[in-house]
Amino acid sequence: MVRVYKQIFPYVHKQLNQWRKKAETIPNTELKTQALASIQHKTFHCEGGGIYSLLARENWREAVRFIVAYQTISDYLDNLCDRSTSMDPEDFRMLHASMTDALNPGNELKDYYYYREDKNDGGYLHSLVLACQEVLRDASPYSFAQPYTSKLGYLYNDLQVHKHVQEEERIPRLKGWFEHYQQECPNLEWYEFSACTGSTLGIFCLVSYSLSGEMTEGLAEQVMCSYFPYMQGLHILLDYYIDQQEDEEEGDLNFCSYYEHEELMRDRFVYFVKQTNLSVKSLPHAAFHEMIREGLVGLYLADHKVKRISHAKSFVKALLRASGKKATFFYYNSKMYNRLRSIQS
């Protein structure tokens, strides 16, 4: 954690500052607004992802560079789709083609704004894609990981398309989509499967191992099986948990709202914690991946937004108990870090 706070997070912020400066030069007002808002309000996504750069060993800076660029694309497009007047699935699909291209160094850049009126971003999105491609081009064992990053990327893109269309179409589309994967994930509900596809953690893990030079075909498959569905599902369910109040006010889709009652949601979160712990035990550096699971629980539950959620105290207590002492350490550590950061700002 000392290394994370003293080395990783400052470099994450350095990278984000560069993208913020680039975003400030975007000619189109709407695109500029959403690009800057995504960086300002979702910095912690890049901070959390940046921890995976520890797996890249001496190439940790390159890992941070990829993670920040890729996560910034994700957060920017999420803002564009959430806050946009467009409800066109073709538009959402085209925008997210940028994330597919970012994972495939041989792909050519496209006109990602083809289906929308707001187009001129001054090369912002192209620059983000190119930054990702440059890092992956220099990671020689990435070819082993590429089929798995591509699959996770396609699932992520599908989710973003289905959940941002006209409100009355969203649930039927998501349920129909889940039917294609139900045999693969028989223990999940449709909304839990959707949550599992919405995380970038598996991609960050695969890329960081590739940059370390340790990636093999066997390791790539291991990471995929260990991270999808449960680690990724835990990540996004926690993300939706803390955003419940905000999403209700904004009229945004929130997967936590589909649990029949509070007790069921708590039990399913505990189930995801336990399944995640089992699934990462077979990975090399198992203690690191267990720390990620514990850190996710601690970091998210320490967020100031949790105070606005009804019955949050008992929920937090149950999840920390299931997650172990290190999760409790991260919980209090994160509370202190957030308080210090708010004082500094």
Query: Ranges with pLDDT <50 over ≥5 residues?
Result: none
User: In sequence order, what are the helices and strands, one letter per element?
Assistant: HHHHHHHHHHHHHHHH
Relative strand content = under 5%
Question: Which structural category fits the helices and strands?
Answer: mainly alpha
> In angstroms, what separates the terminal alpha carbons?
22 Å
Helix content: over 70%
Number of strand elements: 0
Shape: globular
Helical element count? 16
Averaged pLDDT: 94
Sheet having the most strands: none
* Rg computed from alpha carbons, rounded to a whole number of angstroms: 19 Å
Task: Provide the descriptors you would attach to this structure in a database record.
345 residues, mainly alpha, 73% helix
Describe how the helices and strands are arranged.
Layout: H1 2-24, H2 29-41, H3 43-50, H4 60-82, H5 89-103, H6 124-137, H7 142-164, H8 167-179, H9 190-197, H10 201-212, H11 217-242, H12 244-250, H13 262-280, H14 286-301, H15 312-323, H16 325-344
Helix pairs in contact: 1-2, 1-3, 1-4, 2-4, 3-4, 4-5, 4-6, 4-10, 5-6, 5-7, 7-8, 7-10, 7-11, 8-9, 9-11, 10-11, 11-13, 11-14, 13-14, 13-15, 14-15, 14-16
